[in-house]
Each structure stands twice: as C-alpha cells, then as structure tokens.
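re: ur question from yesterday

yeah so i grabbed the chain u mentioned. its 459 aa long if i counted rite. heres the sequnce exactly as i have it in my notes:
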Amino acid sequence: MITKELITELKHKGNSDIADLVKNQHDVGTINFILESLGQLPINFESKFLYDLLGHQHAQVRLNAVKNIGKLNGNTNILILLELYKKEKDTSVRREIISSIGRQRKAENKPLLFNFLEDEDPKIVCQAIRGLLVFDKDNDVEEHLKPLINHPNEMVRTVIYKEYFAKENQSVGVLPHTETYDFLKNTIVNADVLKALKFVPDESVHLTFTSPPYYNARDYSIYPSYQAYLEFLEEVFKATHRITKEGRFLIVNTSPIIIPRVSRSHSSKRYGIPFDLHPYLVKNGWEFIDDIIWLKPEASVKNRIGGFMQHRKPLGYKPNCVTEYLMVYRKATEKLLDWNIRNYDFQTVENSKVADGYENTNVWKIDPCFDKVHSAIFPVELCKRVIQYYSYKGDLVFDPFGGSGTVGKTAKALDRFFFLTEQELKYFEYMQSKSKPQELFNEQQTKFLTLEQFKEISK
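ran it thru and got these structure tokens back, copy pasting raw so excuse formatting
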C-alpha cells in the first residue's frame, strides 16, 4: 500500500526509488497521489522522472510534475518548461509553468516573464505579474507592469492598481475603524434618507442592511418610472457607500415584483429589481460578494399557479414566488478581510464569534412576518443572521428605510448600535410607540429626531 510515509521515506533516499514507484503505476490517481505527497524536495532529489512526466497524456499529471519541478531548489530546467509551454493546451498547466519559473526568483528570468504578460489568457498574465512582483522596486519591472493598468481584464487592472496606484486613506478626522460617532448611535431620523445622510460624516457605518421600497408595489412607494426608481436607489447607495467604513458590507433584500395589469386586455409587468439594481451598485464602488436566497413557506405567498393548475397549457405557467434575495456587497478596497478583523481587540472578536447552528448554505429557510402597520416587515431571524454574520459587537448598523425598526431592535439586542432613517411619519411614530417601557427600544435611550434636530446634533 502506498502511503505518504512511504513516499517521504523513498524521497529522502536520494536514488531512483521514487521514480521506480511512479513508473510501476498504471493508475493516474495513484501517480497524482505520489506527486502531490512529495512536499519539499531534498537537494539530492533525482528529478529526471518528473521531466519525463511532462509528456503524460493526463493534464493533472503534467501539472503536478511541473509543480514539483518548480521546487527543485533553483535547479529547474527552464528551457524544458518553455518547450512544454509552447505546445501545452491546458490553462492550469501553462499557469503552473509560469509559477515554477517565477518561483526561482532569478533576475535572468525576468525577460521570460515579461513575454508572458502578452498572453491572451488573463490567468497567465496574473501569474506572470506575481512572479515579477518579487523584484521589489525594480525599475525594469515597473516599466513593464504599470502600463497594465489599461489592460482589458479587470483582475489584471485590480492587481496593478493595488501595487502601483492605490493610495492609503489618510483622511483627516476619520475615526478609528472600529468606532463611530456618538450622535449616530441608536438614532432614528424622520426624514428622506438622502437629506439625512448629508449630515453623516464619511466612514461612520459598519454595516448596512435594508429592504428598499418595492417599485410602485406599496402605497408608500410611488415613483414616476422604473428608471427613476433605480436612479433613486443608486443615489441612496452612493451616499451609503460614502458613509460606510472601508471594506465593510451592504446587504440589500429585494425580489422581483409584479405590477398588476390595468385590465384583462393588458398584461401585468414583472420587474427584476435585484438584477437591475446590481449594475448600479457595482458601478459605484460596491464589490459583489454573495447572493443569499431567503426561502419562505409556499403557504405564505400569493398563489400564482392556480390558473395553470386548471388548464395546464404551456406558456401559461406561473410558479409561486417563494424566494427573495439578499444581495451581499462589500465596499471595494485593496485591503483583505483580515485587516478589518485585526482592527478589533481580542475580546471583541471572541465575544462576537457566531455560535453553533449557523447557516452552511446560501439558502435560508425563514418564515416571513406580518404586521398590521407595516406591510413589508423584516423577520427578526433574518436580521439576526445578517447582523451576526457581518458585524462585530459595538458596530453601527444602518437601515436607510427603517420601516418598523426591526433592524434597530435586533441590532440593539445583539449589542450593536443602530442608525435608521424613515421618511414615512406613520412608521416613525410606530417606532416611537415601541420605545415605551418593556419594549426593546427602551433598553438604551433611543433618539427620535426630525431632520432639523438631527442637523443640530451633527454639528
């Protein structure tokens, strides 16, 4: 039986035992297991069999052979790898060839890596860039890489921008990453969100979770056109982007909606809000991260399938809509998530860890909520998951369309602060009514403000 222990033992003998072991195998899976188990190679490693495997008919074998050739302590035969590159069709193998050449960290290999920058495959270009970036502050390398800021591929442009054109955010007066302004904590403003956000400083919010009003589907959301509706949301999320901390998240809960037909001689109109809104968000600096499906019980949604159940005629199929989308975005940054996490002290990180029972998939089965005052209320469980998964204790959670205040109540219950804006007076007053004794809003003092009052305390 071939084990990792046996492979390690043969590897260090310094003779042809490993080569013989591979030669005697007829199963591709076993060959790959041996190659993938070699690990770090000793100086006296007999490598001829690795070069022989470069002609193997299976791409994975060739890839693993190239990967090990790249670990030969500076003794890699670059010319043989180049010959393979010229005839190789598999992208993964071609990319690994460049990786093996770059891993040598030899200045004489720079011209080869420069040539790879001309490849049509952006993965090849990115791998060549990676190999060249080890030559720090090398003028020749910079002259070849900087023009790639105009490369047609977005991944290539992103890498080059981060390395040569990105500037550290040194805005004067910006609070530390984990902190926010006291006047925003547990504050609800009765105002149009765009007017209220004019008085909110840059980088104040850690997480935004909201469900925008559906286009002309409720009595509180009337817009002159669908385009006007999308442009309004674009402005809201542009302003939200400005006030969001670097690298932090925006989660937007939407779903396609149907505008009923005027009469039986006309058709209803269905609008794909999450799909139409997405390009506006990406264009304005939000990086798409995930799509989470909120799955509701079929009994809780409007029945659309009834007619089809009767006639069963093709083209007339209309399924019951039991899902909504939680589209997850992150404020674009060159910094990794680890940078965000490291800003918090050890105890905060430990106290904020998500308990067992968290979701493993992007399909969340949660019952909807119904309220006699607000017709589109968030379930607490939905808010709870989002807030726990995308923020830390002490963070500020923002909802630009506060509604009945579920985001605020849930944030407070999870030891976060909240900031809500709500234009409709009846919903604002409803939230005020929930601030009476025994209600969640009364656990800590909540500020209920008009726009003018909010303007004053923001000074």
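noticed a couple things. The longest helix spans residues 226-243. also The chain has a mean pLDDT of 90.
anyway ttyl
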